[in-house]
Amino acid sequence: MRVESSRYIEHFGSVRINGVQRVLQLDSGAGGELYPEEAMGARKIGRDTIEDIEHRMAIVILIKNEELKIFEGVISAIPHECLMIVVSNSQRKRVDAFKMEHDILSRFCRFTRRQALIIHQKDAILAEALKQANYTEILDEKGLVRDGKSEGMVIGILLAMSQGKDYVGFVDADNYIPGAVWEYVKHYAAGFSLAKSPYAMVRVLWRYKPKISRGLYFKKWGRVSEVTNRCLNSLISTNKGFETDIIKTANAGEHAMSIGLAKMLTYGSCYAIETQELVSILEQFGGVLPITNHAAAEQGIEVIQTESINPHLHKDKGEKHLLHELLLPSLSVIYHSPLCNLPTKRLILDQLVTRECLKSDEEPPKVHIIPPPQEANIQEFSHSFEGHLRKYVVPEEGGFREQFIGTEFGRTAAKVRRVVFTDLDGTLLHPLTYSYTQALDALRLLQDKEIPIIFCSAKTRAEQEVYREELGINDPFIVENGGAIFIPKDYFSFSFAYDKVTQDYLVIELGTPYTKVRQKLKKAEEESGCRIIGFGDLSVEEVAQRTGLNLKFAELAKQREYDETFEIGADKIKMQSVLNKIEEVGLSYVHGGRFYDAMGGNDKGKAVKILAELFKQKFGEIRSIGIGDSSNDMPMLAVVDIPLLVQRPGNRWEELEIANIYHVRGVGPEGWSEAVKELVAGL
Ligand code: GDD
Questions:
Q1: Hey, which of 90, 122, 149, 316 would you mutate to test ligand 1's pocket, going by the most ligand atoms within 8 Å of its Cβ?
Q2: Is 3.30.280.10 the CATH classification of the domain at 520-587?
Q3: Measured from the CB, is residue 146 less than 6 Å from ligand 1?
Q4: How far is the CA of 177 from the centre of ligand 1 (A)?
Q5: Above 70 in pLDDT, residue 116?
Q6: The domain made up of 399-511+602-681 is a member of CATH 3.90.1150.10
Q7: How far away, in angstroms, is 269 Cα from ligand 1 center?
Q8: Which of 301, 335, 354, 674 has its CA 20 to 30 A from that of 52?
Q9: Is 222 a pocket residue for ligand 1 (Cβ < 6 Å)?
Q10: Nearest CA to 184 among 168, 201, 197, 203?
Q11: Is residue 477 a contact partner of residue 485, using CB atoms and an 8 Å limit?
Q12: Ligand 1 neighbour 63 (Cβ under 6 A)
């Protein structure tokens, strides 16, 4: 996609509102650019970037008694990578419209090999989950979710949060043009890729809204939007003292938010929602009223407005609906904002009285405001939902669905503690640079949530201690491919069996001493007639040269206690016979990407199992997560509840035969970070 650069920006406290950016090209091709686009006034957003954001985005489709044919067109236009969440308030009595929507979505997902969630707004389990989450403002006197598009949207946000999505976008189900729906989602993804803040919102302005009068007339602005924009601009102008017309999307039903932003905002009931989102941003971050979240304010809140290419054609619900259900509540939330001063109040009253929405002595009725979704206890919400999820996931049958239920939602089971076991080289550490920088933010997330991070690597104790100290990790760790488990003294408050005590640790030894491993390797070398070059045969400089480690780390890598890292000085044909010989002399081996490791009897999986048992004693039920990149992680990935595989250089995954393994996009720490963020979202 190619989007015009933002030329006109308005700042209001920590809020940055970008002027409308036109989309120049819906698909800008796969190749790179030969000239700096910024200078040309346009930004190209690559297909990969868009796809990556779509993967992290839930699209919430709101529906109430719409034409099923149109609904079918809408769902077929949602890009494959997005998670669809349909929130319906359609009738169930006489003709069960919701059942038909459910069937259509289910069939569509079965044919297209994708998964979706569909829920009825009046569902009793949903209402109960909201009660459990202590988020009851959204419930009516019968204890069910109130009617309203806005209420449906908030349910969508909560579900997107519980699914660990980073973004949530909204689409109406009465859109006649599937191409327009597809385009809106592309706008959302492109907008987020341009945003400089994680607290971002993308709002789409339709280029044309065709009307049928004598022929088809392509009208540029909706009347309601024109008035709401004017009033909202007046609110900003009068507070700043500088006139602006920056807001062009005050009623934009087609919009998306990062979850970080969505969960902080308040929402106006029914159709006041889109205007109230902007009012809420201005109130919370405009600097006129007290700032509600300083961390977010520091990063800034960004509003991006884009103009679509496809025309917008939807069902016309009549004048009364437009004025009383859309315009009146939209202007009402501006009117009742503490930011609204006299000139804007006068403008609003004038507009409403002229359109006969109000009598001249009346004030706009107050709109019910829904509190920020972050006030819901999302853990409780997910937890009460978990057991019933089968009811809401489509398609109903197939391994696909099992996978979704077993992991996607399973990961948010609130009361179950997570323990992360991670490989280092090629996984947490970049395979080429050994850098962990890309994973730092995700690592901090785990630490904030007090989720133990267990290194489980071929690296030595001495090497791992450096990383533990640098990253502030104090959890147990598994060294040299499961050779030993080092547990900080006093980490577990109960007693357990261990083999030795050092100054800082209780050590469970599972491997054969290094000298013995070396002796056996020598034997294999003699018997095979091929050179086996272990770290023990090399100087520090040579280890550094072969591994790319610096001298300090090369020295630490040589301080081996349980396993030997080696290369084989033989061609490919002889290689296998040497490896067979190594097994014959009583060792096992693994391939870690660049080198082999030989050891006696230990593997990562055995060590992980022992530690997992200790964590069960500590926490009760746990869910173990294993992250690796290569075949030497197989034993670890085979015993954890959620095995994750990051990519190796060249963006490919090692082929591992493990059931239910999750292939995570991103090489080493990049994939690590993505996976961890997904896993802890909503916890
Ligand atoms: N889940 C749910 N619950 N969906 C609802 C409800 C409800 O109570 N009420 C309406 N919807 C669905 C409709 O079926 C439709 O798909 C979508 O929400 C929008 O509702 P419409 O009634 O068609 O709204 P509109 O076309 O007048 O207004 C749209 O555009 C405005 C901007 O011009 C909406 O998106 C507005 O929110 C927006 O401000």
A1: 149
A2: no
A3: no
A4: 16
A5: yes
A6: no
A7: 12
A8: 301
A9: yes
A10: 203
A11: yes
A12: yes
Instruction: Assign residue 133 a region (left: φ > 0; alpha: ψ between -120 and 50; beta: otherwise).
Output: alpha
Residues paired with 85 in a beta bridge: 60, 117
pLDDT value of position 536: 95
Question: What percent of the chain is modeled with pLDDT above 90?
Answer: 66
Q: How confident is the model at residue 387 (pLDDT cuts 50, 70, 90)?
A: low
Catalytic residue check, 174: no
Cβ of 120 closer than 6 Å to ligand 1, yes or no, is no
Nearest CA to ligand 1 atom 17: 172
Ligand 1 atom closest to residue 225's alpha carbon, by position in its atom list: 33
Q: Is the CB of 324 under 6 A from ligand 1?
A: no
User: pLDDT tens digits for 605-618?
Assistant: 999 999 999 999 99
384 lines ligand 1 (CB under 6 A): no
CATH of domain 2-378: 3.90.550.10
β strands within 247-335, DSSP E: 255-258, 267-268, 301-307
Angle at which helix 97-112 crosses helix 68-76, to 10 degrees, equals 30
Residue 323 is given by DSSP the state I
Q: Is the CB of 597 under 6 A from ligand 1?
A: no
List the catalytic residue out of 423, 563, 603, 641.
423
Q: Best mutation site among 64, 68, 158, 319 for ligand 1, i.e. most ligand atoms within 8 A of its Cβ? A: 64
CB 483 within 8 A of CB 509: yes
- The residues near 223 (Cβ < 8 Å, ≥ 6 apart) are 322
With contact defined as beta carbons under 8 Å apart, do 409 and 83 qualify?
no
Give the tens place of pLDDT for each residue, 618-632. Answer: 988 898 999 999 988
Distance CA 232, CA 303 (A): 14
Q: Give me the amino acid identity at 251.
A: N
CB half-sphere exposure, 392, CA atoms < 13 A? 25
Give the angle subtended at the CA of 676 by the CAs of 671 and 679, to the nearest 5°: 130
Asked whether 302 lines ligand 1 (CB < 6 A), one says no
Give the global pTM. Answer: 0.64
- What is the DSSP track for 537-605? GS-HHHHHHHH---HHHHHHHH--SSEEEEEEES-HHHHHHHHHHHHHTT-EEEE-SSSEEEESS--HH
Instruction: State which of 86, 151, 172, 325 you would mutate to test the pocket of ligand 1, scoring each by most atoms of that ligand within 8 A of its C-beta.
Output: 172
Residue 62 CA to ligand 1 center (angstroms) comes to: 7
* Residue 320 dihedral angles phi and psi, to the nearest 5°: -60, -45
Cα distance from N-terminal residue to C-terminal residue, the chain? 34
| Minimum CA distance residue for ligand 1 atom 36 | 253
Which residues on adjacent β-strands are paired with residue 304? 202
Residue 270 in this model has a pLDDT that exceeds 80: no
Instruction: Locate 424 and state its tokens.
Output: 């280092």
- pLDDT (tens digit per residue) in 204-228: 998 766 665 555 555 555 678 889 9
Domain ranges, ordered by start, for the chain:
2-378, 399-511+602-681, 520-587
